[in-house]
Structures are given as structure tokens and as C-alpha cells.
Amino acid sequence: MSSQTPTVASTESRHVGKEEILAARSVTMRFGGLVAVDNVDFTVHSGEIVGLIGPNGAGKTTFFNCLTGLYKPTSGEVRFSGQVLPPKPRSVVVAGMARTFQNIRLFPNMTALENVMVGRYCRTSAMALTSILRGPKYRREEEATRARAVELLDYVGMKGQGGHLARNLPYGDQRRLEIARALATDPKLLLLDEPTAGMNPQETRQAEELIFKIRDSGLAIVVIEHDMRFIFNLCDRVLCLVRGKTLIEGTAAEVQSDPRVIEAYIGSPDSDDEASGSDVATEGEAGNA
Amino acid sequence: MNVPTIVTPELQKRFHVPGRIAALAGGLLLAASAYLPWAYDGDALDNMAFLGGPSTLQFLGALLGLLLAVSAGMAWVEPWADRKGILPRLLMVSRRAGWTRGTKALGVGLLGFIAVVLIAIALELGGLVTIEYGGWVALAGALLGFVGSRLLTPGRAPSLEKVKTPAWLEIVSIAVLLLVALLLAAYALNQNDGGTFLSILAFIGALVAFILRVGAGGWLSAAGQRHRNVLVFSSFAVAFLFPFTQNGSDANMSIATQVLIFAATAVGLNIVVGLAGLLDLGYIAFLGAGAFTAATMSQSAFATIGWKPPFIVVMLIAGLVSATLGLIIGSPTLRVSGDYLAIVTLAFGEIFRISMSNLDGSDGPDLVHGSSGIPAIPNLNLFGFDFGKVHTVLGIPLGRFSNYFFLMLLIMALIVLVFTRLNHSRIGRGWVAIREDEKAAEAMGVNVFGLKLLAFAGGAFLAGLAGAVKAHVDQSVTPDQYIFLESAFLLAAVVLGGMGTVMGVLLGAALLKLVPEKLRFVNEYRMLIFGLLMVLMMRFRPEGMIPNQRRVLEFHSDDEELVEEIEEDLPYEFAEEH
Amino acid sequence: MTYYLDQLLNGLSLGSLYALIAVGYTVVYGIVQLINFAHGEIFMIGAFGALSTWIVLSWVTGGSTAWWNLPLMLVGGMIVAVLTAVLMERFAYRPLRNAPRLAPLITAIGISIFLQEFVRLFYGQIPGFPDAKAAIPFPQLEFFTGPAIDVGGLQVHRGNFFVMAALLICWIFLWWFVNRTATGRAMQAVSQDPDTSRLMGIDVDRIIVVAFAVGASLAAVAGLASGLRYGNIDFKMGFLAGLKAFTAAVLGGIGNINGAVVGGLTLGVVEAMATTLIPGQFGGPAWKDVWAFVLLILILVFRPQGLLGAKVVDRA
Amino acid sequence: MRNKKLLGGAVALLSASLLFAGCGSRAESSASATGGTATKTAKIGVIAPLTGDLAVMGLGIKNSVDLAIKQANESGAIPGWTLELAAEDDQATPDVGANAATKLAADDDVVAVVGTLNSGVAQPVQPILNSATIAMVSPANTSPNLTQGADLSNPTRTYPNYFRTCTTDAIQGPFAAQYLFESGIKKLAVVNDKKPYGQGLAEAVAAKFKELGGEVVADETVNKDDKDFSSVIDIIKSKSPEAVYFGTEFQLAGPMSKQMGDKGLNVPLMGGDGIYDAKFIELGGREKDLATSVGAPIETLESGKSFVESYKAAGFSDGYSAYGAYAYDAANAIIASLKQSLASASDAKSARQATIDGLSSVSFDGATGKVAFDEFGDAVTKTLTVYEVTDGAWVAKQTGELK
């Protein structure tokens, strides 16, 4: 298969001794006649940042959704820490995989702190009766939840902003809050869907720092991004998808220098998809700027 | 709201001082008019035909007038605050109050109050000629006050909640306020005359508007937050005292008991609609299921189930039966949401009603005698306490409905406890998250389906409890009591009062049940008004009378000034009001 | 056999009535994703409009029930129904277009109650009009009512012919309107993507008004048909009919005009057959509405796009 | 210094106004308003739907009671006492009815109540009035259970304060069955609207008809909100009955009769007193349709005629409707009992028990015939009349008693 390029071997060798967290094997996703993801293999090890790139319509988000249980792959399997997870978003979160959304999906009318506290939902256990009776155990758990949420807000650089409603936060903070919320689920793997979309260079730099900080704390991270500079600064490894297929997988430097990637982004003259071609062109420029 | 601005800011700037004088004079004029006769004849309202002896309503009017004068005049008194002494220190506090805003609110409220009184006099005695000169003086005063207050510039926003006050003062204020509320409510309820009742409502409305706009509301709610237990306890204490104000009459207690049953059901509905954001148009079925369960297990000769356990057990079973129905009705939520869910619940409600009328022996098993239902349900007897008897406490006889009122009060306390504690817990956050964005909630590991079912089952359980008591209060249960319109009424109580709050729903339920009882002359038009009210509320104040602040933001997100104002008020973690 | 054909015919004629009303739900839903819960009341208003027209005519004609009253009554009913629907859209729904989903639904319930009560309380106040607090007899026009016609052993009520013919004509007209006129095509565009349509210069507000008006016209036809067929109208007639018609719209696939027609006919036949075919205690007329609602729930749960498929909207 | 004066002045003004409110010249005035009247007051309550769908019938009841009270006051029927009307709206809803009953029970002047219209509303009202020992006489409740308890084969009176002037389903139904059977009909279809009145009546008809040896070929129900009965009619038609008995009110029966005709089911439709109304014919009732109504035709009774005349003379804006005459009789029965109970009473409240006791022995000729109550509180009169639609109007066909 196309992923069996020599580059893979070299990256694998770099991760000897590291635990394999996520392993997708020949994942295929069909919608009717359309093959959105075609036979993709993908591996993530603990403590690494992997980038997922590709022109619009390449199937990045669909692949993401397959990984996070929003879609059940038509064929192939996704193993997380060696286990095949049931295709339910909830079980995926409980297993230790958390995500953010391309178009921010916070709980707009909850405060920032509450948003993060919702993230703790799957790591806490108080049920209806305990919540009504409020014994010492409940109080301890609630206190711990709040403390953790405050801590996470500090961690992503939103100290003291917990009282604001999510909908009224500046754009950059909303992105950060989404990450804090995802971190609240105690993930082993964090999947970020275009974390810097729409950000200015300064905000992008801050996001970059945040992501490094998270990686240094031992989490594995998968990032979808169009901003090439961002991706190549950040990622240990990069997977490039084109029309649902793996074009290349390798270190940032390898992918960056691969002519096929540039071709995929800027489009070859015989490109059959006008719309995506032109979109990609502008984005490619932005990325290279 | 697109009300054209007649009073422009420029106009206000120019006529600020005359406006203040006019408001002051109007208030004093009104206060003075209370000593003049307002009505030609004593039959209207509470007899306003006397010179020199104000009736209660006139006295209340005078009180509002004085309040207007004081509030309008405060701007001139305040400069003295720079001196020393105890009085100037009080004035320092007054600087934090929004007197001008209060004056404006009171100007409107006062005009409304006088208008209601005069219209009631004219209607009850037949024509405007029956209004005596005092009435016209009062109207002139109110108009003067209104125009004057409109001409004032809005002035500063109140910040009374930042005033540091000793704890005893706060506690005493809460208690006094609730006692005043009790007395006002008791007084209003004892009026059988629709005009008087409406006038008192107008008075309360004007007073509350004033208190809120002045900023005392902020202070009170801050005080209430600090002494939440005192607030909750004294609210229930005051409600507990209510039957003792009735001199042994059961007439109002009958209504009050029904208000409580209705409100308890509405609070249950509020879990489903207000917190979890699932619209349920068949909610009355749960109340019905509870009532039918209790009826079939009661001591009534018409009861169809031979097993007659003690009432506590019956109540639990009724709750569980309702909760089971809730689970069934909630199960489509796995696949259905939004408007479709509303329609599914509506259909379930209709299925419940039709099925009950069919369980009569000819179209189904004879479980509830079909449309005739189960009558002659005896009174409860709990631990030797006979609910049907009159019990005399401290020399005040407490009738049958008072007994049930106390029982419902206990159940209400339980329901409020359940509602608020769930709301401020992991579960409550999960519900709100589902309401806000179901997909995101699921992706964050919230057990969406489980929580939705819990909302349905929990709300239904509470309604089932209320239903079990209702069967005994009404002493008969028929399917006709549980029609779609009742579900719409419940929803209206939630919507009018304020989604997601307990206080709002209590207020909404009380108004919806009380107004038709007290305003007999609108009876024929009550459904018309009710329908119109629902439309207008959605248009102009969709967050309800006592809104959950979250909702205010949801509905008025484009009003930036308001958003900022509210955000400032928000506590660190959105501790919701009650 | 004739018996079952009779029942089938009952079902089809009842279903035609449902279908005429269901189109109103579906057209509006297709364009603004709004369940106009008050649409049943438009059907009722249409019937009252037709009756009022006849009453006014009878002041001149002395109460003639000749066939030529029909078109005039139809126009009268339509005018009143369309006017009500347009006012409703303008003053109640339009301001809520960007409000949370709950708001329009609650508004609709409010409007529904308001319209019923308005007719009940004030219709009889108009001089010369009958009191609407109870059912009012509907004029029985010659040719369209009267004894049943014998068609090969089947007793077919003349009202059945009228309502089924009305449905057929309206259906053809709608097809032409939606596919062959500029306004119709604009409607299609708005239903696909309102924002883009606005950018393309389509007056979306106007199209929405048109959708309400089209639905109201058909509801008025249904109101007139109902009056002729059953001989009386009352202020409550809209609630159950509206609910059933909504069921029909969902059954066929809400947002899909052909779906509304198919759904209406299916529901009518199911109801008529449930009366007959379900044996035992849980069959018969007493349970037919239960079965209709069970069908509605099953459809919503297992095939929310309906029989013919509907506009798929992300409802999360 | 001045500021303190000003504030002091304000405080003084406030307290002065409080003082004024406390002691005005109002005390003596209220005394003079109630004093001075020579007679004592007793009230007869009415609980009926005065607003809403059923207001027509409720207002007829209220006006008829009002008429009886005015007549009694004019003739000085109870020396030393003035009767007053206390009408409460029950909106045809049990909850509201219970509130109305509680309100009346709390009024010490109320001695008896006429009401309710609906059996469903009577159920919660009965116990409330009973515990206040207030007599309740219903002009319209037809459910036998209200007087005879749950087990009709072993009747026990549940509430000793409850009486009624109308007949129950247990009389009217069998009478209709008897009439149909005797007029040669052997195959009957029975339909009801699933409301307590209609269902009770239809069941009573079916039972008696079978007992007489006739055949009930169909027993169907319709939904009270429906307009289309064609499915049911086809079912009935396939059983070819000779008559259809429809337990319901005129709102459904009229259209049903019309649709039967349209479908070619040309057999008479019969109903109870709920369809004995001119509106039935307006809404589609056909010639030869039948209805039963309690008592002899009102025109044949001297007392009935005088009721109709005085009702018209009183100038009420609404007609006396279906239950006006029964309500008039109910009020007169109460007044008859009050003549005894109030004579020796010091106040209205103390006469309540005696009023209940007196009602059991009341007997006079009322607007609907003889008015008296049996040991359960049911009307003793078993006289009923069958009416037939003839030339677009109800015409009395046969008056008789249930055998």
C-alpha cells in the first residue's frame, strides 16, 4: 500500500520503546457511492504530535470522525491502546480520546468554567440520588471537579475568565476553552480539528506553545491543520491525505519537501475538481506565507 | 421592541429639573388625593366614597405617591451626604441606589395602578361619571408623576449589592419582606371583587418594579445568596403560615392547594423543558398516571385494584408508574429530537387520554371505568391524622384543604430540593450541555441518552407524586381532566414564569390558576387572553417574568449593553437564582 | 367486498381532506423549517370564511343553495384564510425567525388557542351571523351534497367526489406553480438554501409569505369541503384535523408536497381500516386515533424522513 | 439644620397618613350598611358552567333558579327571610367546580346548592358540600353511581346531601329500549360517544333491549371530536339494523343522522334528552328520528306552561335550555324544604341539616311533572315522553312509564 514508503520505517524507528496509542488499520468509509476515506493506515505513539493535512475534501474530518466514534468505518478497524472501541463517541472519550471541533462547538450559554466542568462528566460518577442527598463523597467530588476545571483554565491561559459565558469570549479564547474542555476528560490522545483556523499570527503562536506544553505533559496529539507553517513547526510526523487516500506519511521535513504534496495543494492542470482545487490553492498560499 | 422614542435624550437633558419637580409634585398630589373621595358610591372596590378617610386601596395609592415623591427628591438630598453624622452616612448608601431609574419605573407603575382603579370604579358603578373629583385629582397626580419621571435622564445604574451590610440586617430584611409578601397575598386573596384584586396586583407590580429598578432587588438577591438557607427556610415558613391567615375559611385554601399541585407538576416539567431543553407537550399524562394509580389503589368503592397499601406506598407506586411512562415516552429521544420530539410527546399525551377513556370494560379491560373515572375517593388518613376533618390549631380552625395544603407544601419542598440540587450538580450540567449542543455534549463524554431518559423519568416521577395527592384532593379522577390544553397550561406556566427557575414557575403557576378564579369577569375571555399572552411573551419577553439569566442572554444576544450588564452580575460559577 | 371498498373510499375521502391541510404544513416547513402548529386553525377559519360568504350572499339571494354559490364561497374562504395566515406570519412568526426553536412552537400553540377563542367569542357578535359557541349548520349546496350516488353498488357521497376532485386539482395546480412559475422556482431555491437565495436577489420574506398563503388557500378548500361533506362546522374543528394532517405530512415526508398527498391518503385509509380490520377489544373506532398516533410515533422514530423522503435538516 | 426639619416633616406626614388610615370615619358607616334590614338572608347556590362551550345550558340553569328565587321572595314564601342567588362558574371542569363548592361551603348564608351540569364535576363537588352539610340538587346529572354507589346491584347511598330532579340512565335507557322493541324493531345498533352520559345511556339501552329479546347487532363508539362518521356508519350498515340508538348530545347526533342519510342507511336514529333540542334538527337530524325526554311534554302540564311563560316574562338574555325546567324544579324543591327548616332557624347555617332532611319528603307538581325523591335521592318520577322529528320539529309521540 502507499503507506509502506520507506519514510514510515524511519519514523517508526524514532519511536522505538514508545507505546503505540492509536492504530488505525485499513480504515475505509463510504457514503453511498462516495469513498470518503479509502484504506488508510495510521499510527500514533504516546508523546508525539502527528499532523493530518490534505486539501479540502480530502477526507480529513471524516477520518477524524471515524477515529472518534462519530462514524463507524465501513471496513477496517481502529484500535486504541490495543482495544477496538465501540463506535460511540462516549466510549471513545471514556477510553481516553478527546477532540475539538473545526467549527467551535462550545456550550454557548454556559460559563467557561462550566464548560470545562462538563468535560469532567465522564470522569465523575455522582448520579441523581447522590446529587440530591449531597453526602461528603459528593461534595469532595464536586470540589475536585471545580478545582480541576479552574486549574485547566489556568493551564490554557484563561486565568480568571471562568465566569464569562462561552459565547461572549473572544475567538482565540473560545478555541483555548475547547482545548481545556477536551483536556478535562483526562485524555491520553487529543485530536485537534483546525485549532488555529481564523487566528491571527500572535494567537497562532500562543496556540502552538499551548500544544507543545500539552505534548510535554505526556499526551499524544493529532492535529488537522491547513496552516503549513504551523504544522511543520509543530509536528513530529505528518500524514497527507488526498481524496481519501494516504499520499505520504513521514517527518515534517520529508512531507514538506515532497513534490506530490505541493501538487496536491496547488493542483495539477488536469485537476477534475475545480472548487476544491481553487480553495486549496489559496489555502496553500496562506500556509506558505 | 420598536417603540418610537418620543422622549429623546436631548429633551430629557433640557427638562431634567422641571421633570423632577413634576414627579415630586405628582407624587404628593396623589398622596393627598387619597383623603378625597374617589368614587360616587361605596359599592365600588373597597369603598372610596369618603372624605378624609382613605380606604386600603387609596392608602396603598398614597404610599406609592409618597414613594414617588421621595424617590424623585432624593437627587436634591444627596449632596448633603458629604457632611458628617449618621444621616449623611445613610445617604452615602443611597448614592448607590438607582433612584432615578426607580422613579421612572414607579411613574409607569403608578399610572397603571390608578388607571386600573379608576377603570374598575367606572366599570363597577357604570360610567366615568361615577368617579368623584378625588379620583380625577389622583389621575392628574399620576399623570404628572408619569410625565415628570419620563423627562428624567436615566442616571446611574444601581450598585446596592456592593454595600456591605451586617448579616442581621440582611436576615431581618428577608424575613420582613416575605412577611409583607404573605400579608399582601393573603389580603389580595381575600378580595372577592375582581377590581380590587386587580388593583392590588397592579400595586404589587408597581412596588416590585420600583424595588428592582432602585437596585434593592440586587441587594436582596445578594443577601439571599449569602443567606440561602434563611431565605429558603423562611419562604417555606411563610407559606406554612398562610392557612392561619384565612380565619378557618377553606375557599382560598382550595385554590392554594390546586396552585401547589399545578406548580409541583410544572416544576417537574421544568426539568425536562427548562434544563434538558426537551419540549414535552403531553406532560399532563404523568400527573394523570399518578392520579389514576392512586385512585385505583384507594379505598374508593369504585377502585378496581383490590390491593390497598398505605398512602406512602401508593405515592411511591404512583411516582414509579409515571416514571415508567416517562421512560417509555423518553425512549424515542434516542432517535428523535427538536420539534419532532414535541410532536411525539403530544401524541403520547393523546394516547394516554384516549386509552384511559377506553379502559372501561367494553373497549378494553375495566381498569378506570373509562370516561366516568373513579369517584368517591376518600380523604387521606396518615398516621391517624384525618385530612377530611377540621383541626383547630392555636384557636384557628384549619379545614380539609389546609390539611392537603400542608401535605402539598412538604411535597413541594421535596420537589424544589430535587430540582435545585440536580440543577447544581454534575447531572444538571449535563442537561444544560445537552440543551446547548447535543453533539458536542456527546463528544465530551456526556451520557446524552441516559440523561434525557433521567430528565423524563425524574420529571414524571415528581408529577406522579403530585398526581397521587391530587386524586385525594379532587376525590375523583376522570380522563377529561388530562387533556392537551392542560399540558399547554403547564407549559405556559413554565414559559410565562421563566424557564429553568423555580421561583418563576411558582409565580407562573400561581397567576395562571389565580387570575381566572379571582377575575370572574374575564372568565369568558380567559383562554383568549391566555393564547394572546403566550404569543406576546414569546415576542417581547421570551425569557419569562423571572428569567434564568442564561436564558436572557440566549434570547437577547444582540443587545450588547444588556449582555454586559448581566455578565457583571454573574457570580464566578453561574450560581443560578431560585 | 363492497363493504371493504366502501371503507377504502371513506379512507380516501378523509385522507384527501388530511392531504389538503397537510400541504400547508409541508410547504411552510420546507421553506422555514417551522412547524406551523396553528395551521389547523387556518382550516377552521377557511370554513368560517366560506360560511360567512354564503351568509352575506344569502342576504341578497334569500338563502339560495344553488351550485354557483360554491366558487364564491371558495374565494371568500380563501381570502379570509390567507389574510389570517399572512398576518400570523408577519406579526407572530417573522420576529422569531432567529429565536431558539422552542419559541415559534410555543407561539404557535398560543395562536392556535387565540384563534379558536376569537371565533368562538366574536363570530356570533357580527350582526346577522350565527352564534359560534356550538356547531353551526353549513349550507348544503345542490349538486355537491345530497343523497349518495350509486357507483356499481358503492354508495358514494357527493361530498367525497368534491373533496377528492379538489385534492386532484390542487395537486396539479401546485405542481404547475412550484415547477413552472418564477415564484415557485424561487420557493424551491429558498428551501434549498435561504442565505444564498437572498444573495441571488430573491426576496425571502416574500417567498415565505407566499408559502403561508399557498398553505392557507388549500386549507380553505379543505374547510369548505369539510363543511359540505359533514354539514356543520365549529370552532374546535381545526385542532384534531390539524394534528392528523401534521401526522400525514410527517408520514409522507415533511417538506415534500407529494409526500403530503400520499401521507394524507395513507393516513385516511389506515384510520378507516383500523376501525374495521383490527380485531378484538383494541380495535374499533374507540382506538383508531390511538393507532394513528402510534403510526406517527413509529414513523418519527424509525423513518423520520417519511415515506417519500424529506428535506434532511440537522436537528441536533 | 433645615434638612432634618424637612425629613422630619416627611416622616410626620407618613405617620399621619398611617394614623388616618387606621381611624377614619369609616367604622360607623359599615355598621349602618348592614344594619336596619328586617329580614335575614339565606342563599341558594348554583354551580354550573357559566362560561365556555356548555355555557348555554349552565346559564339556563342559573336563570331558572334565579326565577324560582324571585318568585319565592315576591310571594313571601318564607316569612322573615330573603333568598339570594349565589352563582358560581365551574367551567365544566372538576377542579374549578371543587373551588366553587368550597367557596359556597365557606359562605355561612348558603343553605343549598343547585348543580352541577356534568356528572364529572358532581363527583368532587358532592363530598365537599356533604362535609359542610349543604344540600345539593342536580338538575342534570344522569350517572346512577352518584346516588346509588359503585355497585348498582347492591345500591347504597354515598352522600346523604345529594338529590336530583332529572332521571338517570337507568330509567331513560330502558324506557327507550322498551319503546323501540314495542314499535316492532328487533335489530338495534348502539353507538356512544365515550362520554359518561352517552356511554351510560347506550349501555342501559343495549342491556334492556337484549333482555326484552331483541338483538343488538352492533355496539360501536365514535370520538367526540370527530366529524367524519362514515367508517362507523359503514360498519353499522353492514349489520343492517332497523334502528340506531346513539348515546350522545345533539352536537354529534345531528351530523350522525345526516351522514346516515347520505350513506343510504335510512333507519331512525334515537337518542336521550341530550338530543332533544331544536339544534339537533338544524345540524342534520332527519324526519322520524326519535328522542326521549323526562316528564310529560311541558305544554301539557299547567306548571310547565307557567314556567315557560314566567321565564319569558323575566326577560333573561339566554333561553332556559335543556335543563332549565329541572333546575327550576330543583330550586323549588329546596325552597319547599326551606319553608320548614328556616322557620325555626336563627341563622342560615344552622338550617342546613334540616334542609337536607326536609328534601327527602318534598312532593309537589313541578315544571317537569311530579317532584319527589326516593331513598337514594333520585327523582321518583318515571314518566318519560318519546318525541319524533315531524315536519322539522320535535313532536311528542308517546308518554309513558318504564315498566
Could you describe the 3D structure shown?
The complex is a heterotetramer of chains A (289), B (578), C (316) and D (403). Helix content of chain A is 43%, strand content 22%. By secondary structure, chain A is of the alpha/beta class. Chain A folds into two domains: 6-96 and 187-288, P-loop containing nucleotide triphosphate hydrolases (Rossmann fold, 3-Layer(aba) Sandwich), CATH 3.40.50.300; 108-185, no CATH class. In chain A, helix 6 packs across helix 7 and helix 11 (259-266) packs across helix 12 (274-288). With 578 residues, chain B is mainly α. Chain B has 23 helices and four strands. The radius of gyration of chain B is 26 Å and the shape is globular. Residues 568-578 of chain B have low confidence and may be disordered. Chain C is mainly alpha-helical. Chain C has a domain at 16-145 and 157-236. In chain C, the strands form two sheets. In chain C, strands 1-4 form a two-stranded antiparallel ribbon. A two-stranded antiparallel sheet of chain C has the order 2-3. With 403 residues, chain D is of the alpha/beta class. Chain D is built from 14 helices and 14 strands. In chain D, a hairpin with a 2-residue loop joins strand 11 (363-366) and strand 12 (369-372). At the C-D interface, helix 1, helix 8, helix 9, helix 10 and helix 11 of C face helix 9 and helix 10 of D.
Largest sheet of chain C: 2 strands, antiparallel
Q: Could you tell me the mean pLDDT of chain A?
A: 79
**Percent of residues in β-strands of chain A:** 15-25%
**Low-confidence parts of chain C lasting 5 or more residues at pLDDT below 50?**
312-316
Secondary-structure element pattern of chain A, one letter each: HEEEHEEHEHHHHEHEHEEHHH
CATH topology of the largest domain in chain A: Rossmann fold
Helix content of chain A: 40-55%
CATH architecture classification name of the largest domain in chain A: 3-Layer(aba) Sandwich
Biggest sheet descriptor of chain A: 6 strands, mixed
Helix and strand succession of chain C? HHHHEEEHHHHEHHH
Q: Rounded to an integer, what's the Rg of chain C over CA atoms? A: 19 Å
Could you tell me the number of beta strands of chain C?
4
- What's the shape of chain C? globular
- Largest interface: pair, residues per side: B-D, 57 and 55 residues
Termini separation of chain A comes to: 33 Å
Indicate the multimeric state: heterotetramer
Cα distance spanning the termini of chain C: 48 Å
